[in-house]
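Let us work through a complete example step by step.
Step 1: write down the sequence.
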Amino acid sequence: MKERVISAIVALLIIIPLLLLGGIYFNILVAILGLIGLWELFRVKKNMPNFIKGIGYILFLVLLIYGYTFNGKVYLMNFSFVVICFLILFTSLLVYNDNKKYSVEDIFYILSSIIFLSAAFNLFIVVRSKSLILTIYLLLITTMTDTFAYVIGSAIGKHKLMPTVSPNKSIEGFVAGLIGGTLIATIFYILYIDSSSIILTIVMTLILSIIGQAGDLIFSSIKRHFKIKDFSNIMPGHGGILDRLDSIIFVLFGYIIFSIIL
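Step 2: predict the structure and record it as tokens.
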């Protein structure tokens, strides 16, 4: 527990000032976190050549910076960059010519990892550039949902939510996280962002809380597939970057969908 608390404090001391500053400082932080997240996805694929990983990191940064645009109503991916990524990875297959270490299956795994994480971390930049308060609201959804789910689930959780995916999660924790996360984040939204439509805010926050917990389960399923407990141990007591950001990544995607629809 001590190790877990120390890791959390160190992470907060780094992230909070850069979150408040925003701009290039926050963008650099996001790029670094994204690269670590990609490294975590790459490390579960054993024996992947280092130069292929290096290509993946470069392509990730290119997509993160240039691959997406958002005008407030439409979030678009630049498919020309995706095609370039695809061609580079396939050309590397011909050059490397070792199916045991680098195969067509690896290409699609690398490409999907790059696209998914570059879009996710690009959304961190998009949302923060739009509003610090909005960013805090989305972070509140995930942190409060996770906190209530953990505390209540640990105390009274008896009915397993999805035992084959995440055996420690309970239905009681899921419901508690849903209620706590929705309540606190909704109050924050009404007080500091917009109080004109309380019902809509409650519904949106409730759905985003569900999406966040679903994201947690999806990443747990990935870990279960690769037979690992955590993506890495870069944050002692917490696991890896993706172990900590799994919920907020999906909440960001959910929020952008709301932004486009509403």
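Step 3: interpret the result. The chain is about 75% helix and 5% strand.
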